[in-house]
Amino acid sequence: MGAELKQNRLVLVSNGEPYKHIYQNQEIKQEKLVGGLTTGLDPMMQEDDGLWIAWGRGEADFEVVDQENKVKVPDDNGYTLKRIKLSEEEKNGFYCGFSNEVMWPICHTFISKANFKKEYWDSYKKVNKKFADNIMEELEEDDLVWIHDYHLALVPGFLSGSDAKTSLFWHIPWPAWEAFRTIPWRQEILEGMLSTNFLGFHTDSFVYNFLNCAKKIGAEVDFSAREVYYQGSKTRVENIPLGIDYQRMHGLSQDEEYLEKSKTIKENYNTEKLVFAVDCLDYTKGIEERLEAIRRFFEKYPEYQRKVIFVQRIAPSRTGIEEYQQMKDSIEKMVGEINGKYQEDEWQPIKYFYGSVPQDELLPYYNAADLGLITASIDGMNLVAKEYLAVQDSGVLLLSEFAGAAEYLDSAIKVNPYDVEALADSIYQGLEMPEKDRKERVQTAQAALKKYDINWWRDHFIEMWLDCYE
Ligand code: GDG
Predict the structure, then answer these.
(1) Per UniProt, what is one Pfam family of this protein (predicted)?
(2) Measured from the CA of 359, which atom of ligand 1 is nearest?
(3) Domain extent at residue 323
(4) Ligand 1 interacting residues, C-beta cut-off 6 A
(5) Does residue 251 share a domain with residue 192?
(6) What ipTM score was computed for the predicted complex, to two decimals?
């Protein structure tokens, strides 16, 4: 971080914590959590000795904290994590309820999946206030309070009477007004968000959608300056795409041990071509559309039977929600059908794994794969797309045009996941692409990933944020 920014302490606030503590064989173990937000921000916090405030949801989380619910992570030389305790009722209303059954589907424009229960909203407000109170307890002069994501939209509003310098980064899409307006509490949500001076989204179109929503509730909006004037305050709204820790990941991909692991993966599968996909279990990820395209691919290009293996990893998410269980069942049924139809004694077209693994274990898979497959029907960014290209030397990425990352990765083959026929053809195109083209594409992508990495994102975000106070 630049010297001038070092004067300010960073207070990062998110729903999800970067590390949780669990019991394992009667001992307490620390576990790093999987997910885009924490993967992106933890390295940054390790560099700056800041404070991270988040919900402590590990079963042993409160066994290791001090009286102020704080613990140093990842070790005693790390940064401070302050944990907030939520009751079972708060978890159900705020997290499973409003965050996951209202904000998530609406921001991803899955209106029919939303569940607008008044008690969810009441709980969301209460827990957002709780987060704000915890921030207030910690606040020091010149702190920069950087709030993250859709769980905490109201926090800036609860802090508006204080001197806190706040900003909010939104990791998921921002929808068109036609979708957002369906939320009965749309006005209060926007008012909360407009209480901050600086708001960030991944893409231009999310910024535009947000500005338009602000206009619809009566704010004065300057679309070209990307500024919103509302109830006496000004909010600047920008697109700042989250980058990855390129140096680390690319560096690992050059490491002997990693190359050995990736070679072993390829050898173990004993296949000419390997295709890899990894997603959290979610209806936005287009997993069923992808499987449909794989089915069609084997039908249309039978010469690839016995020559290509699709590896699909799925990380569990929202395991308590019935709909996610049904989705898992349906995915597993499709995998079973495709394998049942095509597999032979020595060959199985799809290898399917359910369970999350640490990021470092994913990298050799990215490395071993000739093709990376991302078919989200909508996605804020999708870091896997960036990570895949960061560790490759000649692999091809098939990327949904509906993922935020598609706006920044011209080297990928862009696909419309709803178009099964075209998706099957794109898999073929990717597998057939000459090596020279593949290498060129990877190099172009890597130059951009290196330039716009996680450090660029952090510095650029904070610079623009501080500009708001000049
Ligand atoms: C949101 C938005 C946006 C590690 N193990 C697994 C796994 N990881 C790491 C990956 C990657 C991250 O988790 C997942 O990245 P996403 O971009 O898909 O992030 P989300 O958690 O869905 O969250 C998204 C992101 O925030 C950042 O702003 O890009 O659009 O929805 O770093 O290496 N990932 C999976 N399985 C594992 O076992 N799927």
Answers:
(1) Glyco_transf_20
(2) 4
(3) 246-450
(4) 34-37, 39-40, 171-172, 242, 278-280, 315, 356-357, 359, 362, 379-384, 387
(5) no
(6) 0.98
